[in-house]
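Subject — a protein and its fold
Encoding — discrete vocabulary of local shapes:
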Amino acid sequence: MPVQKEENMRKLTRYAKLLLFGLCALLFPAAVFAADGDVSAINAGDTAWVIISAALVMVMTPALGYFYGGMVRKKNVLAMIMQNFILVALVSVLWVMFGYSMAFGPDKGGIIGNLDWSFLNKVGLLPNTDYAGTIPHQLFMVFQLMFAIITPALITGAFADRMKFSSFLVFMALWATFVYNPVCHWVWGVGGWMRNLGVLDFAGGTVVHINAGIAALAAVLVIGKRKGYGTTPMPPHNMTLTVLGTAFLWFGWFGFNAGSALGANGIAVNAFVTTNTAAAAATLSWMIIEWIHRGKPTTLGVASGAVAGLVAITPAAGFVNVVGALCIGGLVSILCYTAIMLKSRLGYDDALDVIGVHFVGGVFGALATGLFATKMVNEAGNNGLFYGNPAQFGVQAISVVVTIVYSFVVTLIILKGIDLVMGLRVDAEQEYQGLDISQHGEEGYILE
């Protein structure tokens, strides 16, 4: 009898599995099976590298929380880390529901993807040859998800210390939907008008850094200055936290840039080398500039220089050689440092210099790609002005201007609407108390 019961249980389990599998196939057939690729085309090395790269890029968002968290005052450190951390969850859900389909789904007029791929319908485990022919489509999807997460996270440093958490969540959901997804489709989506124009953006200079940087400017203009800004000292409370965040950003950026080759190949190696070279050159050049200007090199300065170099090389990493990377990294520090010095004269309160580093660095990187790109590095790219093709610089300039205008205007509309309906800022008492206590009921440090 025990043997018969065991056999019956095995049969029951087998039938249950078949029933469950059949239901899944009926309800979500495309999500599991549909693809236009061939399973034999999947390359194990490419797949492994892009999985690792996606994980590296994911680490960048909490790393950004540490980078920003060390620069705010002690009473806001958890709020800053929380804002970055929660975006991993929020954007992940939106991306699966409809974001990926809007950004990369079948094109509608060069402007946006349709919703055919919502809930990962037709996004299966076989390759999609339009985007990456040697890795599963779902892997391409999740790699792109990590970019969709960190882009709005970059904006958080601009309005640090003063936005309500409820308003923050609504703003980020709307911004990811109506700003990030369309711009992403223009540049990277099949049929996107910037892609068709020939814009070069290897890993997100336009899609990520210009897009987020100009949105940061719109945010600080709408939300206003921190209480006491310009009269009360607001130094970073924990530079060790900021340096730790910088180190993990630099580490994760190898996935960000080299992973954008979507394969374990020579382009990935080139992107890895140019990324590290530009970051190193920018770190050194920022240190020298600050040493000359202020009389002492600071840890915050070298951390800022490293990030500026990483930002600037992002659109160019897979299109330029190491000499181009040295030039891009060396020059971007001059521009970003100058932009930060001008901030007080221009009168806006960009708390953690998102505009000075990400916007200015992103614009320079996008334009520099139009100067230094060479088909000797990447045949699928194009030559820039310094390699005999001045038209590429013009194409890059168009992408920069359009992204600035679109992101700025739509971000303004979203913020004004939220402010009208639910308000953007905490009240004066909550801001004085700090967002850790007023928004989350906890403290970053309890020292007894």
